[in-house]
Automatic annotation (TrEMBL):
SMART domains: RGS
A Pfam cross-reference name: RGS
Gene: Rgs10
Keyword Calcium on entry: no
GO-annotated cellular components: cytoplasm; nucleus; plasma membrane
Protein's name according to its UniProt entry: RGS10 protein
Protein source organism: Pteruthius melanotis
InterPro entries named among the record's database cross-references: RGS, RGS10/12/14-like, RGS10_RGS, RGS_sf, RGS_subdom1/3, RGS_subdomain_2
Coiled coil: none
Molecular functions (GO terms): G-protein alpha-subunit binding; GTPase activator activity
Annotated PANTHER family: REGULATOR OF G-PROTEIN SIGNALING LOCO
Domain RGS: 36-147
Protein origin, superkingdom: Eukaryota
Keywords: GTPase activation
Length: 176
């Protein structure tokens, strides 16, 4: 399926000028991920680790749906939109969906809307899933072994003799 392969390594999210988007440009890795779910979802490595965590919680379909909706918004052409909309519907929203997301029943889309797709057709459902992740899974992720072990390995890399030597060399270069 197209979006499962798309989101193993999601494309970088860029701002309107094509630069990597971030609300916290100086922060990296786990420090950035801990600032907000939005920051986590902007980082391909963060998405990978969050998916790993959600898989253990049996709710990976939430982030996959969110990512599929983000990709769908960029889709050009009615035929491509119809195909992708149908794939999102069949994978995440239909009663027979293989990776059904848990959205409010009354806000489910009917298959008839798939005939006339538009970029924001899944927005309400995507927002529901985002809020579910933000107020439920994300806080548990920040306390998880996956997050804490990644943070610990980052800190060890930063404190390694090689990193300190490089930092000292850089400070000598810039402070002369």
């Amino acid at each position: 399926c197209w979006f499962f392969s798309q989101f193993l390594f999601p494309p970088e999210i860029n701002d309107s000028e094509g630069h990597p988007s971030s609300s916290h440009p100086a922060l990296k890795g786990t420090s950035k991920w801990a600032t907000s779910l939005e920051s986590l979802l902007e980082d391909p490595e963060g998405v990978k680790r969050f998916r790993e965590f959600l898989k253990k919680e049996f709710s990976e379909e939430n982030v996959l749906f969110w990512l599929a909706c983000e990709e769908f918004k960029k889709t050009q052409g009615k035929k491509q939109m119809q195909e992708k909309a149908k794939e999102i519907y069949m994978t995440f929203l239909s009663s027979k969906a293989s990776s059904q997301v848990n959205v409010e029943g009354q806000s489910r889309l009917s298959e008839t809307i798939l005939e006339t797709p538009h970029p924001l057709m899944f927005q309400k459902l995507q927002d529901q899933i985002f809020n579910l992740m933000k107020y439920d899974s994300y806080s548990r992720f920040l306390k998880s072994d996956i997050f804490l072990n990644h943070k610990k390995s980052e800190e060890q890399e930063e404190n390694s003799p090689e990193a300190q030597t490089a930092a000292k060399r850089a400070s000598r270069i810039y402070n002369t």
